[in-house]
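Sorry to interrupt, but I need a hand with the structure work. Could you write out one complete protein record for me, on any chain you like? Just paste the record in under my message, thanks.

. . .
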Amino acid sequence: MLIREATARDWPAIWPFFHEIVAAGETFTYPLDLGREQGRDWWLLAPPNRTVVAVDEAGTVLGTAKMNNNHMGNGAHIASASYMVDPAHSGRGVGRALCQYSLDWARAAGFRRMQFNAVVETNAHAVRLYRSLGFEVLGTLPEGFRHPTEGYVGLHIMHRAL
């Protein structure tokens, strides 16, 4: 698997699984009816932030990540990131590779820590992955997320030093 900078030409390959994940309403705090253009504008970040894709040998997009400063001004030394893996390619280590890539990017870019602001507590796979990479739950906002089948569940704030 190769992880490379995403371009606007990658959006047609990202959009189908991006839309599926967002519309499912289980893991992201995005509007369920987020449109294609607005989704592109939110996901494909301009430098110094970064969006990447993970592709296989044939060039098929397996997943994507966006990496950015979590805050501005005097909080700009804290990074954040978001990840989406095409469900057709889950279980192949794509999410782990993207997360590790974002940690390396943040460290090289001079960030001191990485923080995830809204990890849905019922997203057990993501929570387990982040913990295995050294993240810890700093706190949980009770009922911070309205899950479509689980009801109101907590949103974890997760963090790790770089």
Summary: Residues 119 and 126 are 8 Å apart (CA to CA). The two ends are 24 Å apart (CA to CA). The chain has one domain: 2-161. The chain has a mean pLDDT of 96.
